[in-house]
What does this fold into?
Amino acid sequence: MMGQPNLLLGCIADDFTGATDLANNLVRSGMRVVQTIGVPQAPLDTAADAVVVALKSRTIAPAEAIEQSLAALQWLRGQGAQQMYFKYCSTFDSTAQGNIGPVTEALMDALNTDFTIATPAFPDNQRTVFKGHLFVGDVLLSDSGMRNHPLTPMTDSNLVRVLQAQCGRKVGLIDYRTVAAGAQAITQRIAELRADGVGIAIVDALGNDDLLRLGPALKSMPLVTAGSGVAIALPANFGLTPSAAAAQLPPAGGMCAVVSGSCSVATNRQVLDFISAGGQALALDPLRIAAGDRVSEQALAWARPLLAQGPVLVYSTADVQAVKAVQGRLGVEEAGAMVERTLADIARGLVELGARQLVVAGGETSGACVQALGVSQMQIGPQIDPGVPWCHARTAAGAPIHLALKSGNFGSDDFFTKAFRMLE
Ligand code: ADP
It folds into this structure.
């Protein structure tokens, strides 16, 4: 298998929407980016400067996360990637068992490198690091909503301590004063830390300027670990500057459809906005799905004559009370899985009917739809709203489609109409 000769950056992301977030930042800084769903079985099929392999490894057992991450690393090396980037959440989502520390150390071992950095700082998204402490907006991580997260409660904002608990290697700090002094000072500090036996350093960053000063100091580092913020500083190391060309996708065609399984406040508003603007919309009733009605067939029969006239929306989006009522009758997991399956069937059916521009609302819903369509690689295009770019992909059946995968709370109220207008 021939590696792609000019792949610059190989990225491993620990979840799907986090991967898109990283890809979006890289594109905006001038890289052509492909995101893959899981570790690909085949070589890259599109020219790219960076590839982001999206895993679902944030909360699985550490040994499994390591195995998947090493498989991603091996594939990226096979494609010729010059530098590796391990991407985690900007709130450093992890437990005392991991998986940020164990995966970082496994990647360091595999790359035979004795030093890397770690910083979740993402100032554009109100995530800053000061003296090693992570702030979410105006409060410490440990005072933010993350302290009650169901899977990865974060009760300590001192990242040196948090990461040290997950690592065998010594964890240190490159503080804001060093970062403010510029790349040379950072490089010198790295040499000192190394001499002290430190293997991983948390890096302070209060604003994008700090990340841009950090960038040049990372130039020859085989592995960088971070949230998506550091991505804004890496393309320049390869001589790339922001350009619209990086976000260019093949021309869009075909019909337009939205499938929405998110029940977030933002998505509820977006559904209402689409309907009040005169859009054709069909609501799905989870209880009818549970009763065995042929809900997806009926939805496709409804959509067939309408698709040619403009975008159609099929949604299970509902307010908190309605969702609670359904969950009470069907169970939380069962209701979720059943609705996801139905929406994914409908997404596939809509594409079979000729939809070639598809917006999916909901993180889990997006995962189910992408899987049903057999999409394994997506080229990342222009940003519709922060964190949500248009992407271009091929389905397993070979149909070229434009996809926008919107995680719950993202996007302005008119997102569903705005997105299609952008492709006109
Ligand atoms: P978000 O990004 O907003 O969290 P997700 O798609 O990740 O959206 O999650 C929404 C979950 O809610 C999915 O599992 C989906 O199947 C489920 N769901 C969607 N509509 C309903 C509904 N009306 N009642 C109960 N569960 C629903």
User: Anything to note?
Assistant: The longest strand covers residues 377-385. The chain has a mean pLDDT of 95.
